[in-house]
Queue: 2 jobs
Job 1
Amino acid sequence: MIAIICVVIILGVYIGQKSIGANTFTGKYTTGNLTWKFAGSYSKTTQEKLIAYPKKWSALSSNLNLTKEGDSYKYSRFRIRYNLTKPPLVGLLGQTFLFTKEGSELGINDRWWKVTCSVYKNSSASSVNKHATLIHEAGHAFSMAHCSHSEKQHIMHQGLKSYTAVSSYEKDELRKKWGK
Ligand SMILES: [Zn+2]
Ligand SMILES: [Zn+2]
């Protein structure tokens, strides 16, 4: 099973899951009650500012709670690695990994215990672009798949983006998966 479930790459290079028919993954978290944790040290202010993006998704369903910081990185459910240098591929903006509790890699059809969302530093990506990548990767954690609707500003479209508002379409898709 591949660990990389999603890549957002500039210039249209595309690896990972090539065809996702549905707008949400078959799999999901084992629970919607999630603790969050950052890898590395970030100020309280920065953490609050950044965690607000994933919370735009969790706020849409009463079955998703992302309110509490976890004690340890290892056993937190929603982990963020933000502004990482050295992306594994040139132009890679972000990546999401799904795991069992103990850290074995899972795929999008599984039931995952924890997630790591990585957002990479990239010479083409402004801080707004990186916020957009963070909310995109968080979408995958909550089972949102890629979509592509021309002329729409959807978070789950691939590529370099500068908008971070969840569309009504995506709100509906999330709620189909998680309930209201
Ligand atoms: Zn993606
Ligand atoms: Zn779309």
Note: Residues 147-149, 152, 154, 157 surround zinc ion (ligand 2) (CB under 6 Å).
Job 2
Amino acid sequence: MELKFVLTAFVFISATVTTAEYIRPQPRRTLEFPWDPKPSSHPQQVHISLAGDSHMRVTWITDDESSPSVVEYGTSPGGYNCGAEGESTSYRYLFYRSGKIHHTVIGPLEHDTVYFYRCGRQGPEFEFKTPPAQFPITFAVAGDLGQTGWTKSTLDHIGQCKYDVHLLPGDLSYADYMQHRWDTFGELVQPLASARPWMVTQGNHEKESIPLIMDAFQSYNARWKMPFEESGSNSNLYYSFDVAGAHLIMLGSYADYDEYSDQYRWLKDDLSKVDRKKTPWLLVLLHVPWYNSNEAHQGEGDGMMAIMEPLVYAASVDLVLAGHVHAYERSIRVNNGKPDPCGAVYITIGDGGNKEGLAHKYKNPQPDWSVFREASFGHGELKIVNSTHAFWSWHRNDDDEPVRSDQLWITSLVSSGCVAEKSRELRKILMSP
Ligand SMILES: [Fe+2]
């Protein structure tokens, strides 16, 4: 009897210990993609992105070089009462030759409306929903995706969430010079990326430059064209867009960012046009985090931060989302390394599930500005409820279940008075040569 009691107690204690301590899973292997032959004129790797006011860019690839860059669309299945013709491109990378990459902008589109569409007059019908005109709006966020078993888990969880726009702060395919990996990534994300706009910015894994032979970002720029022209930028590596009361600025960690650079000048120009009455929320995405207490990539963002943080602070940016470090970390409102009620909340979310695995080692003690840090795969959701409040949550891939592990109500800097308080300081920086 006594032995039975001791054994029962042991099992209970073991179970308690096992469940209390979350055991982080190992990295998962890169997915295998069986050859899936399609007629050469059928669209592959379909994804969409916002392209200026009430417009959407549809991107797809065909093996057939004579396939037209035409999108037919309408609000009922098979009822294509609208159409548009776009442009196409292709690229060579050593011995690899891409298919025909089509980019076609369609619109004007109604807000919060489901559209059915077909690419190149061939193949299956796709559908997407446009974002709402006003709050509430929900963003799904996952950086450093790759294409492993964990990527699939993250994408499955995002697919279960009700969201309007996907934000990806860099490191998409982890093709890493193997160009066919861009194609498999395009196929992997198509179910989600053909249904909701994917707004991405570049990471180091998009570079793929070879000295004297290949320029950087060739594949990325050809395949993931973002609305840089629509936002007055001269580079696909940095741009901005408005959606439902939020202005989002996608910065380029791997484009020049010094005070005399095109990117810095463009950022000043873009900020000078932001009207916080129209877009009370101001968000920034970039790849290399400025606030990072992980040992991984420690200090890599310092150069860009030294130049751009004063501008981001003066502009009262509400939230800065970064990737690169394969873990999750959230700050309090901070500026210049110190807690500041008018600073941005900085979130690192480079934990989409890539082949390199997690970044486990943190610097200790935990800095004052860092309030939550954990090395697990997962994704984030940002629901902007109205002009004053947004709800942020981080969902860890707990085995294969999404578990909400961090959450926070964020109050906008418009509502706290910071925007008004700093308007003179911002004007001074924007006016400086
Ligand atoms: Fe990275």
Note: The first strand starts at residue 44 and ends at 50.
